Amino acid sequence: MRRYSICFLIAAIAMLSGFAVGMGIAGRHMRLVHSVPDTVYETETCPEIQVVIRQEEPDATEAAEAAAPVSRFYLVSETGYLLVFTEGKKDECMQTHIPITDFPQEEQEKLREGIWFDSMMEVFFYLESYTS
Fold this sequence. Notes:
With about 130 residues, the chain is an alpha+beta fold. The chain contains 4 helices and 4 strands; from the N terminus they run ααβββαβα. Strands 3-2-1-4 form a 4-stranded antiparallel β-sheet.
């Protein structure tokens, strides 16, 4: 029993001395800095970079494609959870971790077949209406 108490005492002394040395080293490098009165500090550290990739005017078809919605979203149940896919891409867009069992039976049937949405906000509103 005496051997364990001596080991504990040595370990405690070593930890406290290490802490004291660490505080002594850190204390020398710490200093209190006061702000200058009536000074406004900027929050951004990097200027905004504006790059022009194409300088020629786009034709009418490119302007129409740019104005058209980028993609549609497909909400479907796979392996019991809801997934959101982007139209034209086979990669998974978002895994919701929402089980299909949180929905009424008639909605579960629709979700097994899949539902199309025109925007991600519509997907969020749909999910929120049933999971809130």
